[in-house]
Design goal:
The chain is α/β, with parallel strands linked by helices. It has 13 helices and 14 strands. The strands form four sheets. It has a seven-stranded mixed β-sheet with strand order 2-10-9-8-7-3-4, with helices on both faces. Strands 11-14-13 form a three-stranded antiparallel β-sheet, with helices on one face. Strands 1-12 form a two-stranded parallel ribbon. Helix 8 (about 220) links the parallel strand 8 and strand 9 (about 225-230). Helix 4 packs across helix 5 and helix 4 (about 90-100) crosses helix 9. The longest helix has 23 residues, at about 280-305. The chain is globular, with a radius of gyration of 20 Å. The structure holds pyridoxal-5'-phosphate. Pyridoxal-5'-phosphate binds near residues 92, 237 and 242. Pyridoxal-5'-phosphate (PLP) binds next to helix 4.
């Protein structure tokens, strides 16, 4: 079946966070991580059926969704989980914040790498934890962990590592070896690992494979909270349905205790969409990845021939992490906004001089945005 990812879908006036930011201004929004594509037809159909039923009461997770998640993790990663290890969440950012509250005590420290998805930087602070950051390094043409620096950053108060894998915004799919070194450090210093794997089904390179951190060994699994969701892959972030997988009973109890009275139920339509996404939308998913791959080529080719800008190859996600430091902008995100393109400001990710570009949009719009970026650099 063919899907028309080139179809223009007007999102203006639909209360879209992405598009409303620039309401009434001629700025192409390529910032927050949602895509401009309509969902897979099975998701629309399932939602229509649900809406036609007309009742939206409190909803428990459908047994079939649990079965589908268990099977999916086994099929894709040879990761065998028990249904009771899953904790359903209305959002992954909720999971990051709950993890910070569930591990250690006020005043303890949380370690993460920068740049990183901004809630990794705010969640420890919101949770009365000290935030410790260790920069990633660009080596051999890709972003990598600096293991020595990471290890040196750990203090006697550090209890938790927040890991983003695959990495937003660096676009890396970490190898099993890289993750094993990281996990070994965490074991040595007795850190819990919270591994946000929301982008794990957006792998763009055929020779890359996602390895869930927890699947490294049974010992690593005992110290790991894995966060996953269908929302990025199937473009349903507005429907709020995510989950944590926590094999260790005591850790899971701490996590669910930290949720008590604060974290609401997953909404009924979120479960419906998640089930249709995972169970029925494989063909759409494959077509999406093909389309995103071509958009990625377009962005990478553009950056290659544009003096002042550089980036590393995007192995996963629909996000390009662009280094503008040679372009001489004082404030690159504003300069690009003034040229008609809304990008995410690297400052919010812990790295000044960078911008993040979301290429999950129709190709003609991306082309226009890149042309505007080129013009911004000519001034
Ligand atoms: C790494 C990462 N985690 C979490 C989220 C957001 O999750 P949610 O919308 O379910 O809170 C995003 C969204 O871009 C993300 O990139």
């Amino acid at each position: 079946m063919d899907f028309d990812f080139d179809e223009p879908v007007d999102r203006r006036g639909t209360h879209s966070l992405k598009w409303d930011k620039y309401r009434g201004r001629d700025i192409i929004p390529l910032w927050v991580a949602d895509m401009d594509f309509r969902v897979a037809p099975p998701i629309s159909t399932a939602l229509h059926t649900h809406v036609d039923h007309g009742i939206f009461g409190y909803t428990v997770v459908p047994d079939e969704l649990v079965d589908v998640v268990v099977e999916r993790l086994a099929d894709r990663y040879h990761w065998d989980i028990r249904p009771e290890w899953i904790v359903w969440l209305p959002g992954l950012v909720t999971g990051i914040n709950v993890a910070c509250r569930a591990v250690g005590d006020s005043g303890d420290a949380v370690l993460t790498t920068i740049p990183v998805y901004p809630p990794f930087l705010s969640a420890p602070v919101f949770s009365s934890r000290e935030l410790i950051t260790a920069p990633m390094v660009a080596q051999n043409d890709r972003w990598q962990f600096d293991f020595d620096l990471l290890e040196r950053s750990i203090t006697r108060h550090t209890r938790l590592l927040l890991l983003c894998s695959p990495h937003n915004p660096c676009g890396r799919v970490f190898t099993k070896d890289e993750l094993a070194v990281l996990a070994e450090i965490c074991e040595r210093y007795d850190l819990v690992i919270c591994s946000d794997e929301i982008h794990c089904e957006l792998l763009l390179d055929a020779d890359r494979h996602h390895c869930p951190t927890t699947a490294l060994s049974p010992e690593v699994a005992q110290r790991t909270i894995t966060l996953m969701a269908p929302s990025k892959t199937f473009n349903i972030p507005g429907l709020g349905c995510s989950y944590a997988v926590i094999p260790d009973t005591a850790l899971r109890k701490h996590f669910t205790n930290a949720m008590r009275g604060i974290v609401p139920h997953v909404n009924a339509l979120g479960y419906t969409a998640a089930l249709a996404a995972y169970r029925d939308s494989t063909v759409w998913h494959r077509a999406l990845l093909d389309y995103l791959r071509q958009n990625r080529e377009m962005v990478e080719r553009f950056i290659e021939r544009t003096p002042g800008l550089s980036m590393h190859h995007v192995e996963a996600t629909y996000l390009a992490w662009i280094d503008t430091r040679d372009a001489g902008f004082e404030d690159p995100a504003t300069a690009f906004e003034n040229a008609g393109v809304g990008l995410s400001d690297g400052k919010d990710f812990g790295s000044e001089g960078f911008v993040r570009l979301n290429f999950g949009c129709r190709r003609a719009l991306l082309e226009e945005a890149l042309e505007r970026l080129r013009r911004a650099l000519c001034f």
